[in-house]
Write a structure and sequence with these properties.
Helix content: over 70%
Number of strands: 0
Largest sheet: none
Structural class: mainly alpha
Number of helices: 8
Order of helices and strands: HHHHHHHH
Distance between the termini: 79 Å
């Protein structure tokens, strides 16, 4: 019988390589902390997924579209008034109305970004990126409806047909453009760029 310490150490050393104990040892110490830190960082990415740009509500898209629609309506009405007052033809008046629609659409966005303290050049680039496609779609639908509406192109500001066609065309443009804005915002484009400067 040998109860000496060396034999006890030998028996323990034979037991030490047991895979179960090695695995548990691997979880203890700084290396394990690093692994857990990595997992913690990954959790942060998972939480961040809740803010994925693809999750966009219709209300946000509708507000962005209404913002563009306001500028478009101001520009178009003003263009019609100026064209009529100067006695211009339908095509020249429509071109002026479209140009002013873009101008006022960009201006409204530019003003809101400038309020956030952004310099003019940056704000202008953001406004162009945010509104160009939205206004283009809106103007295409709006003017397309007016052009196809019998007699609408020849109606004057005093005619009910002019205002009825304008209101209906803007309404259709709003309905068509809202899904476009939703798609753009969901991909971090359009008015999603504008929202970054308001938070």
């Amino acid at each position: 019988m040998n109860h000496g310490r060396p034999e006890a150490l030998d028996q323990h050393s034979e037991h030490a390589p047991h895979p179960g104990h090695v695995d548990h040892t691997g979880h203890v110490g700084p290396a394990a902390d690093s692994d857990h830190t990595g997992h913690a960082g990954h959790t942060g990415h998972v939480d961040h997924a809740g803010h994925h740009p693809g999750e966009v509500g219709w209300a946000m898209a509708a507000r962005a579209t209404l913002h563009c629609l306001t500028g478009c309506a101001i520009g178009e009405i003003l263009g019609m008034v100026i064209g009529t007052a100067l006695g211009w033809g339908n095509m020249a008046t429509m071109v002026l109305a479209i140009v002013l629609a873009f101008f006022f659409g960009y201006t409204l966005t530019l003003r809101s970004i400038r309020r956030a303290g952004v310099d003019f050049r940056t704000a202008l680039r953001v406004a162009l990126a945010a509104d160009t496609l939205s206004i283009a779609v809106m103007e295409l639908i709006d003017n397309g409806v007016i052009a196809l509406w019998p007699g609408a192109m020849d109606a004057t500001l005093a005619d009910a047909l002019f205002w009825g066609a304008l209101v209906l065309s803007l309404g259709i443009a709003f309905v068509v453009t809202t899904p476009v804005n939703k798609w753009m915002i969901g991909r971090g484009k359009g008015h999603a760029v504008v929202h970054r400067y308001h938070h």
